[in-house]
Predict the structure.
Amino acid sequence: MRSVVVIGAGSAGCVVAARLSEDPDTSVVLLEAGPDYPDVHAAPDDIRSAFVFAGTDHDWGYISDGVIALADAVNLGGTSDAIPVLRGKVVGGSSAVNGTSAMRSTPSDFDRWVAAGNDVWSWAQVLPFFRKLENDPAAGDFHGHTGPFPVRRFTVDDMRPIQRAFLDACTSIGIAFVDDHNAPGAIGAGPIPLNQIDGVRQSAAVTHLDAARPRKNFTLRSDVLVDRLDIVDGQVRAVILADGERIVADEFAVAAGAYGSPAILMRSGIGPATELAALGIATVADLPAVGKHLRDHPMFAVAVQARPDAIGDLNPPVQTMLTIASSGVSTQENLDVEIAMFTVLPDVVLFGIGMVRPRSVGEMQLLSRDPSAPPRIRLNYFAEPTDLDGMVCGVRVVRDLIATAALAPFVGAELFPGPDTRDDSALAAVIRATPTSYAHATGTCRMGAEAATSVVDQTGRVHGFANLRVIDASIMPALPSVPTNATTMMLAERCVTWMR
């Protein structure tokens, strides 16, 4: 019987392990550092409820160097000298703690993958795998209707009054209404597609892993920390856990995410030779791109005084999404800013602005051979000044929205950055000083043809290794212009076909 070890039970790892275990002649062991909650309805609130997200009870606790995270403007969390980098540490990974966005990457996102030398990842080639993934009641062949991943949208009639008012405010300032953000060419304001059912988050542990749990050829081991891979003569022989246990297999798939996957490779001797040597790690394969090319969506929040009597119940906290092109050329190919309105506190409404096509590039570095030590993460937001332009545009649009008659019954004065911060340079300074992460990190094991500039080939196979793959968001060669969960799961659905 063929044996496979999958490292990391996140969005990608759950898909890979579940799909591989459909073959009774393949034995699959799935390893996860966090806990397992096999009954989602009995799980803690931050795992079960789709209305709770960005918590830290099931998080790795990573931070990014060098910038202030969030101003203590309206008692929303205090200040620090680093950005929290949220990553789920639980079976289901970040899909078990996220905001449940089910937005697809756009066709133009995959044009950038192809332009980076990955010609088997065109839109036409990935669409069947989105459709295989989805269970979306929206009409038409463009959507999948029988997959394991539920996609749901609130109708306008089902929306809370403040969320309907947000859409009315958008149309009143000339923004198009879109009923399906996952449709070709969609840009504007409309209901956000979500992978939740009746307020319950449908993580990858629910959508894929539940089907695998009863299989005799499937084993899930939670609360185990992976140290490294044991590699002999260019062949991976085993996974070595932090306590020294060895797990032998024929093939290995690393799916530990944009920070975990490169860290495991580097502890195994796969990565930039000079950095490995500095830590006393013998180089097995000099792949300089490991840990590099980190891209993430920066986010900035405008806080506005709420009128609690008008808002009422805070849940669901988000039901709508606005997408715009800061260039003014309003096509999906130019889409670079997302705006969503959140009700998470009774007296404050937050408008989250995400820069979803940033040019700035960061990196992560291993600081220790200790698998429990966090890596150094440099998100490097706004290294490219043009990224600030999109954020400033987003703030301007939010201010236009809160000034509309549609939102007037629900919101009052701007609390942060505040009415005194008016001109573009002042706004840019505040945004640069107070970003937060949209938690969509990619690229640290990116795919490509050349070992000098990439880590894996187009099928996820690590350059130079016949039995080792990386399959997760870390291999994306370009950052999608949407939240990354659905794209990560689609990527895993496709890569596992090559493993089969």
Observations:
- The mean pLDDT is 95.
